[in-house]
Amino acid sequence: MKKNRKTMLFAPGNTSSLFKDIISYEVDTVMFDLEDSISIEEKDSARELTKNMINFFDYNQYNIEVAVRINHFDTIFYEEDLKVMISQSKTNLLRLPKVETKEDVLKVVNDIEKLEKQFNKTTKINLFCALESAKGILNAYEIATASKRVVGIALGGVDYLLNLQATKTDSRHELLFARQMILHAARAANIDAFDCIYGNVQDLKGLAKEAQFVKELGFNGKSAIHPNQLPIINKIFTPSEKEISDSLKILNEYKKYKKHNKGVFSIDGQMIDKPIIENAENIIAKANIKNPLI
């Protein structure tokens, strides 16, 4: 079954106290960072700590998906990051930073396949690609479709704005093109579209406005950098009780009409056809409720 991701919490891989706290949070995916938040001097120790803690806590038993943001392949830390996380840890996802082309993805996939063969790994590790530059955004679709391992693409808003020489505003217009490109590429590839972090951890009203905005655009979820952001993101990206009840009503009625081979029917005066049925199925899936049609 496809993983339902609404939240992805960034956690520095060098902060030992955070690893235990994760299990108490309502989070879909935790992303331990070995890249930007870790100094060069701490790269090796952070990698070792992250590996050990992932294995010790076994987050999957708490229904938490484990992702690790490794260092880019143009760094000296990439090979060891990849080797350790594939051969020695219970990691589900690798988050690839600064992806700009499909060749970037294929290079990592090739390296992963060699390691999986070398260490006789039977569980396939998937990829989440961060698009953080103009080049990456313009190549969003080729990145999204580069490999079946790619299950999502995400906006790296801070680096993207730096690359564009743009300024962050309350109106959010400076990120709209990038968000639309990521969303369209993800939908065309049938993978997840994830929004960037909201940097001000004290401005929860601003977070709520931005999360609501990207939800209305169609994003699956939003990244978080502090646990206090999780309840807001979860609430906004979880379907409301009315959305759930309306969707269940549509699907249950469709199940009845399907027996009579009728393609179109109405509920309370509203014509119900295939797009509305598919939307109802999407809402039920996001709510983690069993689809009555299955």
UniProtKB/TrEMBL annotation:
GO biological process: oxaloacetate metabolic process
Domain HpcH/HpaI aldolase/citrate lyase, chain residue ranges per copy: 6-227
Gene3D superfamilies named among the record's database cross-references: Phosphoenolpyruvate-binding domains (3.20.20.60)
Residues noted as binding substrate in the record, renumbered to the chain: 69, 132
Binding sites annotated in the UniProt record for Mg(2+): 132, 159
Record-linked InterPro entries: Aldolase/citrate-lyase_domain, Citrate_lyase_beta/mcl1/mcl2, Pyrv/PenolPyrv_kinase-like_dom, Pyrv_kinase-like_dom_sf
Keyword Transmembrane helix: no
Any Pfam family: HpcH_HpaI
Needed co-factor(s): Mg(2+)
GO molecular function: lyase activity; magnesium ion binding
Keywords in alphabetical order: Lyase, Magnesium, Metal-binding
Protein name as catalogued: Citrate lyase subunit beta / citryl-CoA lyase
Organism, scientific name: Loofah witches'-broom phytoplasma
